[in-house]
Amino acid sequence: MTKIATREAYGRALVELGRQNSQVVVLDADLSKSTMTAYFAKEFPARFFNMGIAEQSLMGTAAGLALSGKIPFASTFAVFAAGRAYDQVRNGIAYPKVNVKIAATHAGLTVGEDGASHQAIEDIALMRAVPNMTVIVPADGEETRQAVFAAAAHQGPVYLRLGRPAIPVIYNADYQFQIGRAHTLRQGKDAAIIACGVMVHEALKAAEELTTAGLEVMVVNISTIKPLDREAVLAAAATGAVVTAEEHTVIGGLGSAVAEVLATEKPVPLAMVGIRDTFGESGKPDELMAKYGLTAADIVAAVKRLKGKKD
Amino acid sequence: MGLTADFPELTATARRLRQHIIRMVGAAGSGHPGGSLSAVEIMTALYFKVMRLDPARPDWPERDRFVLSKGHAAPVLYAALAERGFFPVEKITTLRQLGSPLQGHPDRKALPGVEVSTGSLGHGLAVANGMALAGRLDGRDYHVYVLLGDGELEEGMVWEGAMAAAHYRLDNLTAIVDHNHLQIDGRVEDVMSPEPVADKFRAFGWETRTIDGHDFGQILAALEWARQVKGKPAVIIAETIKGKGVSFMENEAGWHGKAPKPEEVEKALAELA
């Protein structure tokens, strides 16, 4: 199976974008070899600004560049982008609706060995709650590449959530990503799994496995958490049972966003696969995903519970 | 202010800005007069003598930029913008009212001429750095000015910005510290001293000059000096008096964020007549 990390796809896409658009500038906070902005820095040294280990300055400077007509991509780990620099993102970028693209890598538990201090498990909730912010969680490398271009073309702040490990490729170049539009990867009438990021691949595996239990399960990739594709959520709800899956706490993330639509427009049984209000810890990404209930098996179990079937 | 006679027009303008500040904060019933009044001469020099501006084209790419990092001093910015022709002076009394472009803290989306939305302290210098970097990238010769409070220097982000401005040798940027020595809870030196301010900036790689922030001769000379500094950023530490120009507000921390009552407005305006 071909795999690529979304941060790797981001780094490559930035170079491609930089060649096409001279207004694109990139900022980092001493993590360019990890966020992969180093590729851009190498090709466009004059348009790359390392702000050092200073995330507040990173976001503020990006805002100043955007206010002067540039299209800045500001990168650091998600835990610092959404957490440490929250006030700079809120008051300096989102409130004045400044055209900054925050590309946050190393999101979620799949950071792995660095442990809980570096595992952003609540960043979607934080960024989703801020007015004017668009929140995108790509499911693979190709979607990341297209999301980078879409973010650059979009006027306004964007939070792009990316991961550390190589993950399976889902899309090829025929796919057409659009901000605010979900993509249905698999049709099904018995239940629907709505997933984002690394969990989309797990959802596909789960749906395949559920066929052995006689269940035809829809799989929807909601890569734009905000603005949410309400029509896609309602179409999923038409199956009568919805399971959400995200590498994020179940408080305030994709599951919550889906629940907000279902509760107000079309109540159906809902289960959320995600982190249960706890911090992570050190470990290998796969070990952590298993321990914290973020695998295809966990999704399968959630669907079966909703459908009244035994595991 | 021994040199006011040398600058009759600027002095008259400064007096009008002070009147606007008192009127607008009085009408609003809330707001920040103290730190607005301390910055009047600085703002007057920038908006009426030094900065390249065109009120008819607030987004003119070649304009000089001004960032009010101490965003609570919005009244002095609004007074300067109104007097300079960015919006009608009559509008100043809508300050802080529902639907007014004169938000409690500056909102760039609401009022043309406001470059950056500020209010959360510490942000302005980093944003100004970004503007200065963009100017350099685009080969434009505009200058970026950022006004900081002295209490604001307690925010760590200011020093992240100070480090970056020196690192990137931003000589198209000038910072001005409104050193009025008071913050909400009392004397800056007592609450959390940022002293020695000039030494700190020098240690971060800046050129510094300390002046009387109410003396137009010194302000204009310092702003000219700052533009001549090459290869590093320059900071002007302006020694000022909080509440300057209104006797009962001068050097009183209580007037940081309190509006004058109607009779106090009248008394202040009489002093500023």
Can you tell me about this structure?
The complex is a heterodimer of chains A (311) and B (273). With 311 residues, chain A is of the alpha/beta class. Chain A has 2 domains: 3-168, Thiamin diphosphate (ThDP)-binding fold, Pyr/PP domains (Rossmann fold, 3-Layer(aba) Sandwich); 183-306, 3-Layer(aba) Sandwich (Rossmann fold). Helices cover 40% and strands 21% of the residues of chain A. Chain A has 13 helices and 14 strands. Chain A has a 7-stranded mixed beta sheet, with helices on both faces. In chain A, strands 9-11-10-13-14 form a 5-stranded mixed beta sheet, sandwiched between helices. Chain A has a two-stranded antiparallel ribbon with strand order 1-8. In chain A, helix 9 (199-210) crosses helix 13 (296-306). The longest helix of chain A is centred in the first third of the chain and has 15 residues, at 6-20. By secondary structure, chain B is α/β, with parallel strands linked by helices. In chain B, strand 6, helix 9 and strand 7 (234-239) form a beta-alpha-beta unit. The longest helix of chain B has 21 residues, at 8-28. At the A-B interface, helix 4 and helix 6 of A face helix 5 and helix 6 of B. Chain A: Its EC number is 2.2.1.7. Chain A: This is 1-deoxy-D-xylulose-5-phosphate synthase.
Domain module count of chain A: 2
Count all strands of chain A and give the number: 14
Write down the overall geometry of chain B.
globular
| CATH topology (fold) name of the largest domain in chain A | Rossmann fold
Coarse structural class of chain A:
alpha/beta
Radius of gyration of chain A: 19 Å
Largest contact between protein chains? Answer: A-B, 29 and 32 residues
- Net shape of chain A: globular
Protein name (chain A): 1-deoxy-D-xylulose-5-phosphate synthase
Family (chain A): Belongs to the transketolase family.
GO molecular function (chain A): 1-deoxy-D-xylulose-5-phosphate synthase activity
Domain Transketolase-like pyrimidine-binding (chain A): 4-169
